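Running this now, will post back.
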Amino acid sequence: MSSFDFDLFVIGGGSGGVRGARVAASLGKKVGIAEEYRYGGTCVIRGCVPKKLFVYASQYSEHFEDAAGFGWTVGESTFDWKKLIEAKDKEIARLEGLYRKGLDNAKAEIFDTRAELVDAHTIRLLKTGRTVTAETIVVATGGTPNLHAALPGHELCISSNEAFHLEELPKSILIAGGGYIAVEFANIFHGLGVETTLIYRGAEILSRFDQDLRKGLHEAMEAKGIRILCHDIIESVTKADDGLSVLTKNDKRLTVDTVMLALGRTPNTKDIGLEAAGVAINELGAIIVDGYSQTSVPNIYALGDVTDRVQLTPVAIHEAMCFIETVYKNNPTRPDHELIPTAVFSQPEIGTVGLTEEEAAKRYPELEVYRAQFRPMKATLSGRSEKMIMKLIVNAADRKVIGAHILGHDAGEMAQLLGIPVKAGCTKEDFDRTMAVHPTASEELVTMYTPSYRIRNGERV
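Update: finished.
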């Protein structure tokens, strides 16, 4: 009989933590899990799920405009921010209930409290002061927005957390950052009628994505009316009579209602007792793990964003399932972080899997690049000038498709499906002999028979 209170204790009730706790409990393990805020974590409560609902809401302004080209007459439309927030909150509460129900049905013990490590086997539950012990501990506390505390006036700004709970929709907003959170919120606020400016220190938004998609999205956003300031950063934020006054490094002075900082996320490891337990972290505060998510303390594991490996919800869930296989099924399994399909729910969307053209050119001596840019069928009657871009990156030596990139409507949905053949190592010939579905935008993926250009030793030929 175990001398511990629990076989497994999970600190953090996000997607990875809940999955690990629920599955372990369903295997008959005695499991406890603690969450200080709400079950569901960043993704469900104040991340990708409510953000996608906001994306849908922000698209209706264009849908109403497009309807005229198809014979519809749409009357005067108005938008109610408070109704959107109310509907979003109701859905998030429903989802949180499902997370709790899953844990409860699996017989995991749920604690609504902040928890911290006392030592390698002991956890303190701060709400009651009670301590419990566990044979195995999983830390899955996720990440938190970087508040950029060195910025004068940072306390006047919001992060993505607060963006989901604003009492009023601002008339104007400045968003700092060039990653997917900044870009997605810029499109959301613009679609809801907010005068939107994006400021980013780099030469182009979305630094880790394919250059063609980055440029294409930048152009599409500016064409919609979103102002993008690259090669610039915020120097200070101060209160003004008519909102917030922002001074930039390039001596621009902007006055806006709201400033949102989307400058990356930080692993949530502060004051949770890692040092007391002997768990090592890196210079960024992320928990250091091996290939099996095991920390420097053999009985403590870490999953998801707190490890700063790949900050995506499905990755955290995958890591949790690998943890279960390794620890409770005698089947050591490493999380596979290669070839992860990814979407940016900008407007238009980006969907991508595999290497960008720039990455592939550094890795392979010769590439074939297949590229199509076209106006989607829907735009022919709506009158929109927006273009879709599709690219396939092929290793010339073995003909494998090593990268697939899409900019346009439903790109995220296509990226999920493209992830399968790219992960399976399919060749360009496999794509070529697949029949097209007509008329669709995605048929371009199987009808690009001739390379648009080749790259040899990093040079286009």
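The CA atoms of residues 122 and 142 lie 20 Å apart. More later if anyone needs it.
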